[in-house]
Amino acid sequence: MKVVVASGKRKTAIARATVRKGRGAVRVNSVPVEIYPVELARMKILEPLKLAGKKAEGVDIDVNVHGGGIMGQADATRTAIARGLVQYLNDEELETLFRDYDRTLIVPDTRRKLPKNPLGRGARKKRQKSYR
After folding, report:
1. What value, to the nearest 5°, has the Cα angle with vertex 10 and ends 7 and 13?
2. At 70, is the secondary structure helix, strand, or coil?
3. The whole model's pTM is what?
4. How large is the average pLDDT for residues 26-41?
5. Is the Cα dihedral 108, 60, 100, 90 positive or negative?
């Protein structure tokens, strides 16, 4: 039995998707995606499945995701699902479709928080000068 494990990242959220032959069930942290609590996150997670269409019907996808917030986890999950589908189906056409639709479906978002600097209150803000 063929099983593919793919990962996706967004900010501090990390998702691991396991793709295997099945009947089209998608679970995120053992919860069916149909009853996933946040609707916007649910729609984001289902994007790669809607784009794949009939190709994604014969596979079961289990996703374990931790870290980050709700939308970060949703982005990491959609990346993991898209990568897993491309690897499982070994389909170049599907990969180009995902890339053309949204590059972050295949390539994870590398943006991170800037470190705080010693002269300011944050990464870019500096202490004000009161003279001049």
Report:
1. 75
2. helix
3. 0.87
4. 93
5. positive
